[in-house]
Amino acid sequence: MTILVDAAIWPHDGRKWAHLVSDASLDELHEFADRLGIPRRGFQGDHYDVPTEWRERAIALGAVPVSSRELLQRLRAAGLRRRRSPA
Q1: Integer Cα distance of 75 and 21 in angstroms
Q2: Going by fewer Cβ within 10 Å, which terminus of the chain is more open, N or C?
Q3: Which residues of the chain have pLDDT under 70?
Q4: Residues 6+ apart with CB under 8 A from 4
């Protein structure tokens, strides 16, 4: 069981954001997010978005930095990837 975080390269509201996921369970992800201080309302269906400064804190708490490609592959392999609904 591992918490993964990709690079903070995704721009929004003048900040750069990363994705925080679990490769094992959503319960593990929520528990880690609680430890990090991220409110549950920040959950995006299969991940949390975290700004650059929170990414560094996540790594300090044990999250493993990976590429966005690896993060997505491991999320899919765990069966936790949530597909977007067609618009």
Answers
A1: 7
A2: C
A3: 1, 84-87
A4: 20, 21, 22, 23, 63, 64, 65, 66, 70, 71, 74, 75
Name the token pair of 13: 């509201």
**Amino acid, single-letter form, for residue 16:** K
pTM of the predicted model, to two decimals? 0.90
* Domain boundaries, given as residue ranges, for the chain: 3-77
Which residue is associated with the tokens 């925080």? 20
Predicted confidence at residue 80, as pLDDT, reads 86
Burial class (CB in 10 A: 0-12, 13-18, 19+), 19: buried
Q: Which of these, 85, 11, 57, 83, lies nearest to 20 by C-alpha position?
A: 57
Q: Which two tokens stand for residue 61?
A: 């708490």
Cα–Cα distances in angstroms (integers) from residue 16 to residues 19, 58, 65, 74, in the given order:
11, 15, 15, 22
